[in-house]
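task queued by scheduler; priority normal; single chain, no ligands, no partner chains; default sampling; output format set to structure tokens
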Amino acid sequence: MASAVAHEFQFESAPHQASTAIAGMWLFLATEVLFFGGLFLCWIYARHANQAGFDAGARETALGIGTLNTVLLISSSAVYTAGVTFIRTGNVRRLIHCCLVTLLLGAGFIALKFGVEWREDFTQHLFPAAANFKITAPGLGGARLFYVFYFASTALHGLHMVIGLALLGWIMLRARRGDFSPQYHTPVHVVGLYWSFVDMVWLILYPLIYLVGRG
């Protein structure tokens, strides 16, 4: 199969091309860490200055949905990792199955987060710009700031999720065309790194949104 040995002219060999692609993804993820890391630091600093308000905001979040979404994302990463293992042994069919399951789990996350949880947030007047914002107790003005961070961070994470779902669809299409083999499956590996990063971002968001201050 040509795709097993082919490489672009600027690379010495197919392994060189593969290692460069993986290194490039790690470099991209490093920039993403800087971006999300800055957001999380601002969140922690703001919470320190407005602890009562942030605690009040956290108590209004849907812990059950957040926990279920965490299970969905962890499961999706585990399934995709199995898919990477399958393609390393030449089992393209199982790779496609794993991509499909991962895509469905990711779509379930999106549906729960934005179709159910966000809708409930708006219904309960928890949008920070709402004139009739739900949390109005004296000294809890920081609750609006909590929901600024909440909506901004989950929207950014959701955008990364949508990109990840599109990449999963792309991997499935290429796998069905027979583009991958034990000798060549770099795109599968690269997309797996991206998907795992999106998962890890959520594992930081989950306690920040649902757990810290809830007690």
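post-processing summary
- DSSP finds six helices and no strands in the chain.
- Residues 11-211 form a domain with the Four Helix Bundle (Hemerythrin (Met), subunit A) fold (CATH 1.20.120.80).
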